Amino acid sequence: MEKVLEQIIDGIVKFDQDSIQERVKEALAAGINPQKILNEGMIVAMGKVGKLFEEGEYFLPEMLVAAMTMQKGLEVIQPLLMKSGVKSAGKIVLGTVKGDLHDVGKNLVGMMLKGAGFDVIDVGVDVTPEKFVEVLQDNKDAKILALSALLTTTMPNMKTTIDAVKRAGLRSKLKVMVGGAPLNETYAKEIGADGYAPDASRAVGVAKTLVG
Amino acid sequence: MNSRERVLTALAHKEPDRVPFDLGGTVLTGINVKAYLALRNYLGLPRVEPVICDTIQQLARVDDDVIERLKVDVRRLAPQSPSHFHLEIKDTEDGQYTYCYDEFQIGRRKPKVGGLYYDMFHFPLSGNISESDAERFPLPDGADPTRLIGVEKSAKKILTKEKRALVMGNMSGGIFELFLWMRSFNDGFTDLVSKPALAQKLLRRYTDIQLAYWGKVFGALGDSVDVVHMADDFSGQDAMLISPSSYRRYLKPLHKEMFDYIHSHSRAKIFFHSCGAIRKVIPDLIEIGLDIINPVQVNAAGMDSAELKREYGKDLTFWGGGVDTQRAFDASHTPQEVREDVKRRLHDLMPGGGFVFATVHNIQGNVPPENIMAMWETLQEYGVYSR
After folding, report:
1. Interface contact flag, B190 A68, Cβ < 8 Å
2. I need a surface site. Which of B9, B77, B113, B326 has the fewest CB within 10 A?
3. Of B120, B240, B365, the CB nearest to A59
4. What is the tens place of the pLDDT at every residue in B175-207?
5. Is residue B194 part of a domain?
6. Average pLDDT in the B145-163 region?
7. How far apart are alpha carbons B361 and A63 in whole angstroms?
8. B97 in a domain, yes or no?
9. What's the whole-number average pLDDT of chain B?
């Protein structure tokens, strides 16, 4: 592998926020195409970060800083990717459900998904079912609706949202994935979600499986 | 045996006549106002205008008639807002939320429809701040004596008339909580990796104001305080949010300093609240002198009640863990399910004392009175020590 790609990977895994954009520019100057920088640099790096998280080596702060580092690098290549018409891994509409203002987990999932090549539309926090439906209607090509909740008192609003999406006739074309501290696989199934991930790292894997 | 003796016996790791019961002794073993009013109604108690004792969490003050009826053994004594500060609650312009700023200038809002809590939306120290910004930003005075107006009288009533154990509330959240709430969660968490000196500066300042506060408390109340209430959340459901090594680097030395101060200035036991999967740092907390752990989130990873008791029961009192609030208590569960869970927790945690019964965290707004009473009746039936 090109040395500069290794440096990009290393820079993300070791949180080198100050020089990541330099490294990416170097890679471009060396003639490596942006798609390759994304796939063989950034996505590989975030995979490593996810693995370190699952192994209990990295925790939330390390994940966040690695994801922010990756995001900085991504800023350099994103316009080029758009221009070259590279297909994204899929469009995802993401938000925290009604009554719930928590966004750290949701934001991290958003960054991880972007880092994995998805096109993420972040609708924010305290999002009503109606608002989710509206955004989905404006984004008919969305493949996944990703819902977050941190509270046992707000997680029922995930079901309310899924039901609203059904009533709007949008459910059949969509996969729904859910996450948040009080959730588990069983609950996700009960409310009619297609996927559940216990953390941001595994959310990427779930999203990939859902879009097939 | 009166309530206070019951609690002190349990805290001394001996078996009292029955397991002491806490409801409302802290703002982490309390009850949401919605659940509280439903409970009063269910018990046939007179209608009251509930007093909110914690705005952010919308907790009701537990009134004397409920304390008597449910044989609560613990009383909370809380500081009031200092004289120069008044918490003002306003409506947002769009009418969607009510909001307020606390004395640290942290802004919180609650959806007007269906909102159960105030959640943070304004973090006064967020963004790209320097170490000198962190040093200069005005913080409340922990030693402000107006926080403690009237506490001596209330303490006397609790100890001599009611004969209940006295838990003294803190002036604010814990040092790491304040750090995250002022810096914002995102910036605070990332500071631990990217700006360690800034994190340390702020944590030091929060520690200093809390030490000043406890100094005033013991000046006023001395040995009347049975338990002091402290907290710091740093864990999630499946793991800690920060690494154990971050805990040891940033928080443990400051927690130790506060624990040491409290132990050397009073005979109070230290109640420390920390949610989630904290197993990896329980030995650290024991090492720095912790007495009581709360809320004992029994369904979090590594937090099984039987295992915790076996491993740490000789060193720690468990205050909480009485019923699994997330998975066995709300309206989606039957009173029978509640009974089974309570029986299991009693079985795990009560032997040998070192256990004060409380729900895992506050009783949430969606817990029906039938389930609260199923919990309480099970405690009355099975929470008795054989003589």
Report:
1. yes
2. B113
3. B240
4. 999 999 999 999 999 999 999 999 999 999 999
5. yes
6. 97
7. 28
8. no
9. 96
> What 3-state DSSP class applies to A148?
strand
Output B122 or B117, whichever has higher pLDDT. B122
Return the pLDDT at B387: 58
Residue at B112 is within a domain: no
Q: What are the residue ranges of helices labelled H in A30-171?
A: 34-36, 43-54, 60-83, 104-115, 129-138, 156-167
Residue B240 to residue A101, Cβ atoms within 8 A:
no
Sorted by where each starts, the structural domains of chain A and their CATH numbers stand as 3-83 (1.10.1240.10), 91-211 (3.40.50.280)
Q: Say which residues have a Cβ less than 8 Å from residue A79's Cβ, sequence separation at least 6.
A: none
Query: CATH number for the domain including B234?
Result: 3.20.20.210
Q: Are strands B90-91 and B227-231 parallel, antiparallel or unpaired?
A: unpaired
The contact set of B with A (CB < 8 A) is: 109, 111, 114-117, 119-121, 185-186, 189-194, 236-243, 246, 276, 325-326, 330, 364-366
Structural domain containing residue B246: 3-84+126-382
**Tens of pLDDT along B295-354?**
999 999 999 999 999 999 999 999 999 999 989 999 999 999 999 999 999 999 999 999
CA distance B315 to chain A (A): 27
Model pTM?
0.91
Of B189, B238, B326, which is closest to A61 when you measure between CB atoms?
B189
The ipTM of this complex is 0.86
Interchain CB distance below 8 Å, A182 and B117 = no
Say how many domains are in chain B. 1
Give A-chain residues touching B276 at CB under 8 angstroms.
Answer: 181
Q: Which of B183, B186, B249, B303 to mutate to probe the A interface, most A CBs <10 Å?
A: B186
Whether omega for the bond prior to residue B244 falls within 30 degrees of 0, making it cis, is no
- Measure CB to CB from residue A65 to each of B115, B194, B237 and give the nearest one: B194
Q: Which helix H or strand E contains B246, and what residues bound it?
A: helix B244-246
- Residue B120, in any domain of the structure: no
Pair type for strands B97-101 and B90-91: antiparallel
CB-based contact, A80 to chain B, within 8 Å: no
Give pLDDT tens digits for B353-365.
999 999 999 999 9
DSSP secondary structure of B190-211: HHHHH-HHHHHHHHHHHHHHHH
